[in-house]
Specification:
The chain is α+β, with helices and mostly antiparallel strands and about 200 residues long. Helix content is about 35%, strand content about 15%. The protein has one domain. Helix 3 packs antiparallel against helix 4.
Length: about 200
């Protein structure tokens, strides 16, 4: 074996070791705070930003709390888009909901206001995505949720979709608060049974 072949073998072996280490680290992180979830219970949907701010989760000191409140705000869109946007403005902190985002919510939720409700426990396509009372929701992290400092991507499970959907957050270091950055959980889901011609 020539010098070039020896070097090639050494590089290959080193790369294999490094890949095995990364895979091992990822596997060993499962169940150790890297795939956990937090549950939240709400006895009523807030109807305006003042009611949202009165909830204990409005401290926004974890992205999990901000995620749960984001879903509540999106549920309000059905009855009052203006109140929903005001709540989302609060959740965005130093920023405001942009004209582009307002259009995005309008398009995604037009005649599909049931989508945010589908993330709450008890909601199914058969019951028109009506959550159980009190409303409870589970927010999930994965091993990559906090890869970038002051940023987080958390996940929510819809009863009408096979894969989890994400919501992105940004932390304000001076206050420690986690603010909404990007809603990525409003893709289409299975139609409620009463709207599905094939049900």
């Amino acid at each position: 074996m020539g010098l070039f072949d020896s070097l090639k073998s050494m590089v290959k072996a080193s790369a294999k070791k490094e890949i095995a280490k990364v895979v091992g680290d990822t596997v060993s992180s499962v169940g150790k705070g890297k795939n956990r979830s937090e549950g939240f219970t709400f006895h009523a949907l807030p109807e305006n930003v003042a009611e949202l701010q009165a909830l204990p989760e409005a401290s926004l000191d974890t992205p999990f709390k901000t995620a749960a409140l984001t879903l509540l705000a999106l549920c309000r869109y059905k009855d009052s888009p203006d109140d929903a946007i005001a709540m989302l403005d609060f959740l965005k902190g130093p920023e405001q909901v942009s004209p582009y985002e307002k259009q995005f919510y309008k398009e995604r939720l037009y005649e599909k206001e049931y989508i945010p409700f589908s993330y709450f426990n008890g909601a199914t396509s058969q019951n028109g995505y009506t959550p159980s009372q009190p409303m409870t929701v589970e927010i999930y992290e994965n091993p990559y949720s906090f890869d970038n400092e002051h940023w987080a991507t958390l996940w929510v499970k819809s009863a009408g979709a096979d894969n989890m959907r994400s919501i992105k957050f940004r932390q304000k270091p001076s206050t420690g608060e986690w603010f909404l950055n990007d809603v990525q959980c409003l893709s289409e889901i299975r139609l409620p049974a009463d709207k599905d011609p094939w049900a």
